[in-house]
Design a protein that fits this description.
single chain; 210 residues; mainly alpha; Arc Repressor Mutant, subunit A; Four Helix Bundle (Hemerythrin (Met), subunit A); 76% helix
Length: 210
């Protein structure tokens, strides 16, 4: 069974937790999850390890894996780290932007404006990946992807907040304009603000589920 299968399953379990299907205190039993998702216990075990790494569950002595309330401090730390790394990517992308890169950003934005919520979430990740690529620094790209892997499903959840998708699109438009106009400092500030807004929306969502 591939690593991709385990990560996809981790995404599904994470979504179920964030949707309230598995509230805090729920035991995530391998056999039950294997039956639910039609998989063997090996990818389930790997997926649960990833869900724990995301801070959505914890392996407890004599109890197995149990859903926990997200650690707000840990989430904020991860968002802060991601905001700073992606802000640097936006700054470098603004310095190094090419006509081809600007057209790619505009194309992605156009598709985001017409997308339904599911497609928007995918295009959101695509746009951030593109900015990372345009930054032209492989090490920064690896750092960004590592942080985003831990936060991606949680970041998607905040888009369920009322009117968040429209505001997210506006934030991306301003960000892309700054990058294409080579306004490096402004692009970094906008990226930082965008991710801080996402963190605030997520915390509000968690409070509402409360």
């Amino acid at each position: 069974m591939s690593e991709t299968t385990a990560l996809r399953l981790a995404d599904q379990i994470s979504e179920a937790i964030l949707n309230g299907e598995f509230p805090p205190g729920t035991r995530l039993e391998e056999a039950a999850l294997a039956a639910r998702y039609g998989l063997s216990r090996t990818p389930v075990r790997e997926a649960l390890a990833e869900v724990c790494a995301r801070g959505l569950a914890d392996r407890r002595p004599y109890r197995g894996v149990e859903v926990v309330a997200p650690d707000r401090a840990a989430l904020l730390d991860r968002f802060e780290a991601l905001a700073e790394v992606e802000a640097l990517c936006a700054r470098l992308a603004a310095h190094r932007i090419t006509l081809e890169g600007a057209l790619q950003l505009d194309d992605c934005l156009g598709r985001m404006a017409e997308a339904d919520p599911d497609a928007y979430r995918q295009l959101n990740a695509e746009l951030h990946d593109l900015i990372g690529t345009l930054a032209g620094n492989a090490e920064l790209m690896r750092m960004t992807q590592s942080l985003r892997t831990r936060l991606e499903i949680i970041r998607r959840a905040q888009l369920r907040r009322p009117d968040r998708m429209r505001r997210s699109l506006d934030e991306h438009r301003a960000l892309v304009a700054a990058i294409c106009n080579r306004q490096a400092d402004h692009a970094a500030d906008l990226m930082r603000g965008h991710l801080r807004a996402a963190a605030a929306e997520l915390l509000a969502l968690l409070d509402a589920q409360g």
